[in-house]
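Dear all,

This email documents one entry for the complex benchmark we are building for the journal club exercise. For each entry we list the sequence lines for every component of the assembly. Then comes the predicted three-dimensional structure of the complex as a token string, followed by one or two observations. Please use this as the template for your own entries, and keep the labels exactly as they appear.
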Amino acid sequence: MTDRPRPRIAVVTFPGSNDDHDAALALERLGADATLVWHAEPELPDVAGVVLPGGFSYGDYLRCGAIARFAPVMGAVRRFADGGGLVLGICNGFQVLCEAGLLPGVLRPNASLSFVCRDVGLRIEQADTPFTRRAEPGQTLTIPVKHGEGCYVANAELLAELEASGQVVLRYEANPNGSIADIAGVANETNNVFGLMPHPEHAVDPLLGSTDGGLILGSLVDSARERLLTAA
Amino acid sequence: MRATILVRPKPGILDPQGEAVQSSLRQLGFHVDEARVGRVIDLELDDGDKTAARAELERACEQLLANPLIESYEIALET
């Protein structure tokens, strides 16, 4: 256990990110070396994965994630993803990935117009992705959400595509925000980019009520380690 | 040259803000069948060729000011 290599995973800090340190701490606990990367960096350090954390990047001006996608580091994140690199977007990070076109669809204000902050039940729809491999298909996880704009929107055509190709990775058991088809998390076509509204980094310690977030972040750590070993 | 850009949620896109506004207007006694809330962006531009300016603004809308998946936009130019 102790001599397993610790993959290095970048956590990007945008102005207004506020879950970057939680994400880094959770990754460290799960066996990775987390490195915070400032949004103005034009390049990523040598990493085996990237996390775009939650928060309110650039004040969420215009639309959530709309400004962050132009951050200098996003060019590097795009190149990393295009090369098959593992990229996980949590909450605001998910919104940024959608605005950047690295994930399909878009996130809109919650149907209730209220900010929701509570534990939600989630169903694993796809367990064969680099981000869910520690979970079983159909397994139910308890992970908190905390967002005002988490209503996932895709038109009928895109939704049919996502369903047919198995890109809907996570679904809410009880929809907290009006997302179409109860979608809580989607992957890109090649399964190396994944975004979700719930916060796995807030569910890695029994003190906080659930450790189910470790299944998501731990899967990323396992996948990143594997890539490290394959590359070596 | 001044440009005004109207960004609206596309038809069929859930607009909870519009629904809240509609419901408030109704409570005040206004008879409103539907309300949709968009945004207005006013831009000051260098004077120049209007056609070129419009083409430039369309690119700005597509790349940043609107998300074409969920929003439509209209550009009005006045000199």
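Observations: Chain A touches chain B through 17 residues (CB under 8 Å). Residues 8-231 of chain A form a domain with the Rossmann fold fold (CATH 3.40.50.880).
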